[in-house]
Amino acid sequence: MIPRTTEDNLTPHDLRALVAIDLGAESCRVSLLRWLPEGPEIRLVYRFANEAVPTNGELHWQMSRILTELHSGLRLCAELAPEGIRSIAVDGWAVDYVKLDDNGNAVGEPFSYRDTRTLSAETAMHERISATQMREITGIQISRINTAYQLFADKLAAPELACKHWLNLPEYVLFRLGGRPVSELTNATHTQMVGLDGEWSPEIFEALELEIRCAPSIVPPGTDIGHLRGELAELPAFADTRLIAPCCHDTASAIAAIPDAGKDWAYISSGTWSLVGTLLDAPVNTPESSEANYTNLAGADGRTCFHRNVNGLWLLRQCMEDWTKAGATFTIAELVHAAGQVPTPHHLIDVDDPDLLLQGGMADRINAQLARRHLAQYSTAHEDAPHLASLIFHSLAARYADVLKHIEHMTSKHFEHLYIVGGGSQNALLTRLTSEATGLPIRGTETESSTLGNFAVQLATLERPEASSELTTSLWAKRLRSASRVV
Fold first, then answer.
1. Fold for domain 7-251+451-486?
2. pTM of the shown model
3. Which pLDDT tens digit goes with each residue over 147-156?
4. Active-site residues: which are they?
């Protein structure tokens, strides 16, 4: 049976279920896509909290716990899908990684990109290769959280681990499930070690004295990397389940969920970070884009996500942590509503101040910036939280508008509308302020966009041998937008 290409009733030739795993810095999700008689259904099967944990002055992810939780979620999927599960794919945040020994076992728990070890490593690294050189080679935004900086910091701290193999986190999960070790291109580009040709850069590896042989093979989005193996494979539902590397970087996965084949639109992937940009047919690596620190992230279907990382809801969530400790009982939804009732702030903050990327004491960090600029500071008491939240939202919206104007200039595009994807798309106040600041109508917000994009890439991959090339990721994403949701 060849899938029908009408958008409203597009159906795969194999009606077994699909599983999408989305690793988030605050929560991880396991979702199930089933093809029921009435149409596709996406069910959030399992969700668990996640956070980096301070350990002996370092900040680490509890990867062993994450794997245990994911196995629980996959077992639930097997119970809910008697028709069997066709494939599993994993996306998540980029840059962090697991070191492996010669037997493929993890060497300790992975560092969080917010660990401060890269602060000192950054200067030493650029004595070997300048930021300008790295940008010219990779086309990627310079940031000390990128994998290259972290690997170099590891080398400085523990030279004996410098030659260890490593995998970024989504690919590591796929590896533990039975897949071959790979680096999917959207994740690989975010390491700051891939050239514009899509291959590891020998120049960068040599400059940093890192072993290029320890880097995994790069594969394009939608690569089949093997069968599920181990205890889970003994369950009837997982008897013949493939493992797919989708757009392993969750931002690229979220953008793959946008069902628009046109070129007159921009996107904001809104969550802990805000990724503000547009899709292009080729990277933009001009002196202007380099100086302004824009990035060229590989995307689905051979396209380039050209955007800038802007701070995001990290600002509010960090403030919320402090307010909760001080006795606040309001939810984020209640705070967003209250922030819409207070006067517009007289001044805005620089949301990309490096000090605001660090963990802890966010309200004090914001006030410190205001003090440096000789501006009035805000009360940090939780009773006055709506005023500080309003400041954050207005500042983010203004920054989004500035970035989009700059992108229009660099790409000669004229945007007609804007898509907001990710958890921040449900923030009605921020969405309204963004529309007002940019002058653009907002289309098609989607909360679990990374999951939807994950499924769309799986379908485009699995159906490719059976169908025409017209069945792109975008077309599958459009079909899945109509799926019923169960949470």
1. Nucleotidyltransferase; domain 5 (3.30.420)
2. 0.88
3. 999 999 999 9
4. 250
